[in-house]
Design brief:
This protein is mainly β. The protein has helices at about 90-100, 105-110, 120-130, 145-150; strands spanning about 25-30, 35-40, 50-55, 60-70, 70-75, 85, 100, 115, 135, 140-145, 175-180, 185-190, 190-200, 205-210, 215-225, 235. It is globular.
Length: about 240
């Protein structure tokens, strides 16, 4: 498994604005010996992203939302309490900051009506919109989307390199860490993992992972009984 992912003790984002601009700004960066060119319209922070909010009728919590391309995402981690969901280190302040950590089975039904846990393919759509496909390691797909999806603060540094992102699209991924299968917690400040609804073998499921130590995002898999974050995706209006 890709080395920057979670290492536990036991298991080791609706209003359309600024879309008419034809002017683009392009940047180039190096990734594993490749020059990656990324362009965006100057009309909005992510070229085609725009912000709004949603209030969960179940508990009254309000979440920022963001439209990225054709998708509307919660721009904050879900913090709806269900069975088999947890606060990092069992501290309620961490739920307020990072949202809850859900087992996969809990995550499947955690999103409110009108929203759902995204599939692996829907995460692929997000990653293709915000970056480029880079490579595949075993069954892990890697994209150059990490820096553009990460929040601009809260990520730890790595060997003198700032681990924060640009948050170019307003997805605002925080390093919420995770919960291991025996109840241990790890990775806060270093990693973010978001469950998908897509299974991988009988005991695993795909997730989108972000790490502090590089600018990539990946679609790998974890065991279903560990705790990861949830980002809900609005159901299609078609």
């Amino acid at each position: 498994m890709h080395i920057k992912r979670f290492l536990f003790t036991a298991l080791v984002l609706f209003t359309l604005v600024g879309l008419a601009s034809a002017e683009q700004v392009c940047t180039e960066s190096e990734y594993k010996g490749r020059t990656i060119k990324k362009c965006r319209d100057t009309g909005s922070s992510g070229g085609d992203s725009s912000m709004d909010s949603f209030t969960d009728p179940r508990d009254g919590q309000t979440y920022r939302t963001v439209q990225i391309g054709s998708q509307t995402w919660m721009a904050e981690n879900l913090n709806y309490r269900t069975d088999d969901s947890y606060c990092y280190d069992d501290e309620s302040a961490n739920c307020r900051k990072y949202g809850r950590l859900y087992t996969w089975n809990a995550a499947l039904n955690a999103c409110p009506s009108g929203w759902h846990l995204p599939s692996k393919a829907e995460f692929e759509t997000l990653l293709k919109r915000t970056g480029e496909f880079v490579e595949e390691e075993y069954e892990i797909e890697i994209y150059s989307s990490g820096r553009s999806l990460k929040s601009t603060s809260g990520w730890n540094d790595y060997k003198g390199k700032n681990g924060n992102g640009t948050d170019s699209y307003g997805f605002s991924a925080l390093p919420a860490g995770g919960r291991g299968d025996v109840g241990d917690f790890g990775g806060v400040g270093y990693n973010a993992g978001f469950w998908s609804a897509t299974e991988c073998y009988s005991n695993g499921a795909y997730h989108m992972g972000l790490g502090y130590d590089d600018d990539s995002a990946d679609l790998g898999y974890h065991f279903k009984d560990i705790g990861l974050s949830v980002r809900c995706l609005r159901n299609s209006r078609l």
